[in-house]
Amino acid sequence: xxxxxxxxxxxxxxxxxxxxxxxxxxxxxxxxxxxxxxxxxxxxxxxxxxxxxxxxxxxxxxxxxxxxxxxxxxxxxxxxxxxxxxxxxxxxxxxxxxxxxxxxxxxxxxxxxxxxxxxxxxxxxxxxxxxxxxxxxxxxxxxxxxxxxxxxxxxxxxxxxxxxxxxxxxxxxxxxxxxxxxxxxxxxxxxxxxxxxxxxxxxxxxxxxxxxxxxxxxxxxxxxxxxxxxxxxxxxxxxxxxxxxxxxxxxxxxxxxxxxxxxxxxxxxxxxxxxxxxxxxxxxxxxxxxxxxxxxxxxxxxxxxxxxxxxxxxxxxxxxxxxxxxxxxxxxxxxxxxxxxxxxxxxxxxxxxxxxxxxxxxxxxxxxxxxxxxxxxxxxxxxxxxxxxxxxxxxxxxxxxxxxxxxxxxxxxxxxxxxxxxxxxxxxxxxxxxxxxxxxxxxxxxxxxxxxxxxxxxxxxxxxxxxxxxxxxxxxxxxxxxxxxxxxxxxxxxxxxxxxxxxxxxxxxxxxxxxxx
Length: 517
Ligand code: NAP
Hints:
The protein is an alpha/beta fold. The chain has helices at about 10, 35-45, 65, 100-110, 200-210, 235-245, 245-265, 270-275, 275-285, 290-295, 315-320, 375-380, 415-435, 445-455, 460-465, 485-495, 515, and strands at about 25-30, 50-55, 120, 125-130, 135-140, 145-150, 175, 190-195, 215-220, 225, 310, 325, 330-335, 335-340, 345, 350-355, 370, 400, 440, 500-505.
């Protein structure tokens, strides 16, 4: 770890130009998951120490810190689901378990000396753009700060979606979401209901099924599930990763480029059905012999429309004698159980919600106020929209990592994050070089960009796949998915395209940016 122990916030000058003493930084980063930490590492690599990260929890890790459910793991190969600039040879299995991913993020935090820059236990309550000072004013539950640039790294899987099911709040047993697992509740021998069959449920159901007395699995829509080619990494392989120059990078790029073929297949539902879907259908056919159950578990939409899942343990677990797959919808929850739409009541001791996250109505949008005090949630009244996934018209000097249309259905989210980091670093470099107080994407550039995304999305599994998914917002627009090859996004974000931005060289008071901080 480096010996950096002071940041401008502690030094007391308030950074160049000052703000409230000790409370101004050039860059404020919200969140310490893959995005926020990645941003901080890039800033350190550029030689900057004029930044702070605000983290509401008391440890780094984002979704990998918060999700502690049994069986939690990553379904993207570890060599790719990590930063390309911080390779780690010691991954124990092809696909890392949650603890290993979290450990990796902690390792990166210390290796790059990021920890002293983190304000743990600081929740961002509100950020307001001040046109006069051309700064962001941040109100946290531990005090106020100002920053020239605000980078949000709050992801899209940070706040659980609690389903609006009649009577849910009247339930008297244990009730928790997969992202807020109640480890104090002893599942041994209990009757448990699980609602949802997404990426989280297919991991925790096989992990808890052997323990519970009985499990009712409430499935609204079946997922396509493929086999997971996971295996232990032999010590000799770790040795090769460590000692053969270029090997890790080659394997990572091989996996990354191979996954681009999936993007090509998913660009057309027919093509996806004839290829990847066949692999998943075969896995189902091989794993589930009962034709009645198999019919229940067969999706009626193109693979990829909802996230394609991978598991070798899902089908065996849900065919166990202590599991019932309930495909009749839920009518209501009563104090001691769940009643389906046919009126059948199934008593349970616990309900576990595997019902996903608020991905298209992001809580952070309720806390950001741009020019003229406009709240991002209001600006996004018709759905999330941004430019190159990162900037938003009306919100100067705001960079949103994993912003609109940056979710991937075919590759590693870290690839998108790294592309965005390159864009932000170049933006900061250009702002410095040209002495800019602010940059704000032109509305027309944003509009044209969103037309491009809509064109790219048109006819793909993500908007013509015949399903409803969390990628699609309340207005029916898929504002989540990046619908094509990642190299196209990387190309778009390689350089900050200043010509698409309105810029200001002074603060609203006419003070040159260089002197205003
Ligand atoms: P999800 O994929 O959104 O799945 C939510 C599940 O809950 C769906 O089966 C959904 O059914 C069901 N559901 C929601 N509301 C319901 C209601 N009112 N009644 C009945 N069922 C309801 O959520 P998730 O499993 O937590 O996964 C979210 C995302 O996290 C994933 O897509 C992925 O990006 C990420 N993740 C990744 C990994 C990894 O290995 N990399 C692991 C876990 C999660 P419908 O399908 O009918 O809506």
